[in-house]
Amino acid sequence: MLRLLAIETATEYCSVALYQDGDVIERYEHAPRRHAELVLPWVEAVLAEADVTLKQLDAITFGRGPGSFTGLRIAAGVTQGLAFGAGVPVVPISTLAALARGAHKASGKAKIFAALDARMKEVYWGAYRFEANGNAVLTGEECVCMPDAVPIPEGEGWFGAGSGWESYAEPLSKRCAIDMTACLPDWQPHAADVARLAVIQYQAGQAIPPEQAAPVYLRDNVADKPKPKV
Question: From 3.30.420.40, 3.30.70.2330, 2.60.120.10, 3.30.450.20, which CATH number describes the 96-184 domain?
Fold first, then answer.
């Protein structure tokens, strides 16, 4: 029986999920600045609901980013601590891939432009195609850029999802030639989708030791920028 615990805190939404042989238990809430408060109690709650202990897990997975710097550090730090304690490996999953997977399942579309509002008039961007087994395949690279400069892969039938489409509807729809009716602008990444993508990677032997788990900021130069003196 395969069991994975998933944590996703890259946006203002917080979620924790437990995958157990195809079934998923999830806690999910819009909780700005409350991720650190909610994550561990929710971990305890989903494990208790399934009558599972940490040491019975096969791996722990988390949304590695891009997203909120604080949120990503919370997810990576909690995942590392729990994984060390349980003696299990870690499976980092792109937050954009998780966002795309949820939109893929909700819309039935196989090609998703995932965009999260990155502030500073930019978006976190990734173009994903979905295989028959539900695996997300990145086309090109994930990036952070202006909405009117996002890279567009060849082909038609793309569908938009994520807060970037809500914040920058006009430039993105013009750039991608997508009508906003072919979009889920309010869709958010869920731990349940992180978990289901992680199952595929875990079964492919792509789990890593806990000490190698790290956030992916895409805009990491901003995270390290010193604060101005006052």
Answer: 3.30.420.40
